[in-house]
Design brief:
Number of helices: 9
Bound molecules: flavin-adenine dinucleotide, FE2/S2 (inorganic) cluster
Radius of gyration: 21 Å
Strand content: 25-35%
Length: 344
């Protein structure tokens, strides 16, 4: 989302009376409940001041909560009810927030919220949609990745579609929303805890056990998603069979070096240090390039590469496209050459 849209959110923060037309820009919501789900995860419920209905959403959707510094963080919406109306005219939004470390402070801000506090959020958007297909569906969640996945389980349960939810964590006490999920999913739930199994969840083993063309939806730590991608590739399955959502951007890698980026439109040149992305640097310079996820999995920030060799770190391009080096996602990818010229 371009920075301009969030500037609109800041203005709405001052208003107690948000007109319907402004909803695309922001909703002023009150925290009505805060609960500790695990040592690190809190569940928050957000509602309008008089509990008026909120915009509807589909499983996999997230809201973006504005932070005091005008940056924002995304949180997936949670529904554990098999009532098909729970998401069509909701009177509150429920989210689960894991306290992160290292962190730029977003999850700390969310954990400091108390009942009665107000936050501004962008209404639900969805890059992780559950397809309306009839095959049995495999849901795979690790840790806080349960938030979008449980909403998918609730929708599948409501529609009477067959599914199996694999939910993994270090110990049972690290599994957020566990009692509600056990109640919702019953025999469709398969739990994995590292301490009792004596090992982390075996993604490759799960994929190897699948017999038909079940679509797989995965959300969890980057290592789990990378294992799911590797297991999909190893079996020659189509990319479309595995859908996933990443919660965090790639951390800088050791050996990352500074490089120069030149914008074709203006000829301006920028030095990209190892701890910043191309997108960060050109936004700091006052540009407003299109972007959304900042994790290399939505494709919105993609640009053409006119000179130089990109170092791809995204989850969008195919292996062939990466080898061609003609386009790149500037929110995560870097450069193998000292200079890149991009069509921006
Ligand atoms: C679509 C979407 C849905 C999401 N849903 C949820 C949700 O339901 N619940 C939830 O808790 N979060 C969710 N997130 C993540 C959330 O938006 C925030 O990113 C999260 O709360 C952390 O914010 P932060 O400012 O505390 O940490 P950030 O500074 O954003 O860091 C996040 C993580 O990135 C890694 N990291 C960052 N910098 C470094 C570094 N220099 N070296 C190594 N590692 C680093 C660390 O693992 C760190 O914990 C979602 C994200 C997206 C994109
Ligand atoms: S902003 Fe989503 S891929 Fe870059």
């Amino acid at each position: 989302m371009a920075a301009a849209a969030l500037a609109g959110v800041a203005k709405l923060h001052m208003s107690q009376d948000i007109p319907e037309m402004a909803e695309a820009e922001g909703l002023l919501l009150t925290v009505t409940d805060v609960r500790a789900e695990t040592r690190l995860i809190r569940a928050l419920t957000l509602a309008r001041s008089h509990h008026e209905p909120l915009p509807s959403w589909h499983p996999g959707a997230h809201i973006r909560v504005q932070l005091p510094d005008r940056d924002d963080r995304s949180y997936s919406l949670i529904n554990v009810s098999a009532d098909p109306h729970a998401t069509t005219r909701p009177r509150s939004y429920r989210i689960g927030v894991r306290l992160e470390d290292p962190s730029r402070g977003g999850s700390r801000f969310m954990h400091a919220l108390r009942a009665g506090d107000q936050v501004t959020v962008l209404p639900p958007s969805n890059n992780f949609q559950l397809e309306p297909r009839q095959q049995p569906v495999i849901l795979l969640a690790g840790g806080i990745g349960i938030t979008p996945i449980v909403s998918m389980a609730a929708a599948l349960a409501a529609e009477g579609r067959p599914y199996r939810l694999h939910y993994a964590g270090r110990t049972r006490s690290d599994l957020a929303f566990i009692k509600e999920i056990e109640q919702l999913c019953g025999e469709h739930l398969v739990l994995h805890t590292d301490d009792t199994a004596g090992r982390i969840f075996d993604v490759d083993g799960l994929f190897g056990s699948l017999r038909s063309e079940e679509p797989i939806y995965c959300c969890g730590p980057r290592a789990m998603i990378d294992a799911a991608i590797a297991a999909t590739k190893a079996r020659g399955w189509t990319d479309a069979r595995l859908r996933f959502e990443l919660f965090s951007a790639a951390a800088p890698q050791s050996g990352d070096r500074p490089f120069e980026v030149v914008l074709k439109s203006t000829g301006e040149s920028f030095l990209i240090p190892p701890d910043k992305t191309i997108l960060d640097v050109i936004i700091e310079a006052g540009k407003d390039p299109l972007h959304d996820c900042k994790r290399g999995d939505c494709g919105i920030c993609q640009v053409q590469v006119l000179e130089g060799v990109p170092d791809h770190r995204d989850y969008i391009l195919s292996d062939t496209e990466k080898a061609e080096g003609k386009k790149m996602q500037i929110c995560v990818s870097r450069s193998k050459t000292p200079r890149l010229v991009i069509d921006l």
